[in-house]
Amino acid sequence: MTALDDLAATPFHDADSAQRSRMLSRLADTELSVALEGEPAGDRIELRIFPLESGPVALACDGEDRLADFFGAPVAYAAMPGRVLAGLLRGEGAGLLVNPGHPSEMLLDAGMLDWLTEVLAVAPDTAEMRLRLTAPAPATVESLAEPLATRLADMHGLIGGAALAGIRGEDGPSAHLLLIAGAEAGHQPAIAKALAEALAFLPPQPGGVDISFSDAAPPPGALRFDLTPAEPPRPERPKTPPRLR
Predict the structure, then answer these.
(1) Which of 7, 47, 99, 179 is a good FRET partner for 31, with 20 to 30 A between their CA atoms?
(2) Which residues are within 8 A (CB) of 28 and not within 5 positions of it... i.e. 6 or more apart?
(3) Nearest-angstrom CA–CA distance, 13 and 15
């Protein structure tokens, strides 16, 4: 089982939009092995394109062993993140078949890859917002808390803390702000981009969710994310002493 398989409790094409978005977000950060027509020539590669009824597609797996198993023999391939492969295929006008025969199998047509590439190109606005902050809306917490916690956990060591706050409006939060603390200035653009991408794959919230870097204490009622790594489980002690022979 791979990270993509773990997200595929329901097959991609039977899943709801929230689960599909989480799988696509993970796909963008996953290193894929894509089949080639032949061995790379320097920095030039030729993707192996398969003509399907729905249109031409490339074939990629989240492991070269899976790719070889599909063909029944070793095959020339190139390894690259899903986001890079999506950009290459956008120029080819082709789709992408991922992990055929595995729980995370997905067939993404050219239109879906165009959308994915546009989402990944989002440049977030990280300017400091001098606004009145309040507790986030309960519906927003329900929609975003779990997937954001997962994404923020991936950034352990790069950030020191994170919290989700609301921007006060007349009848409750008019928008939301994800506050990031303890991030070095040189890392902030990459962190902001990764979080903006994660938010783009989640259900849209009224007024949107902006990202801000601040070491100030979050406002009262903000949703704080625990970034402490989980401790490995301790082995259970036997309930009775072992028998000696």
Answers:
(1) 179
(2) 81, 82, 83, 86, 116, 120, 197
(3) 6
Alpha-carbon torsion angle 18, 221, 215, 126, nearest 10: 40
CA proximity to 136, closest of 208, 194, 198, 226: 208
* Residue ranges of domains in the chain: 3-120, 133-225
pLDDT attached to residue 122: 62
Q: Which residues contact 137 (CB under 8 A, 6 or more apart)?
A: 166, 172, 173, 176, 205, 206
Sign of the C-alpha dihedral computed for residues 214, 215, 219 and 221 taken in this order: positive
User: Is residue 72 left, alpha or beta, with left meaning phi > 0 and alpha meaning psi from -120 to 50?
Assistant: left
The average pLDDT across 146-175 equals 88
* CA terminus-to-terminus distance, the chain: 41
What is the value of pTM for the model shown?
0.60
Q: Which two tokens stand for residue 130?
A: 């001098």
Q: What is the CATH number of domain 3-120?
A: 3.40.1350.90
Q: With the C-alpha atoms ordered 85, 93, 50, 5, is the resulting torsion angle positive or negative?
A: positive
Q: Output the pLDDT for position 127.
A: 38
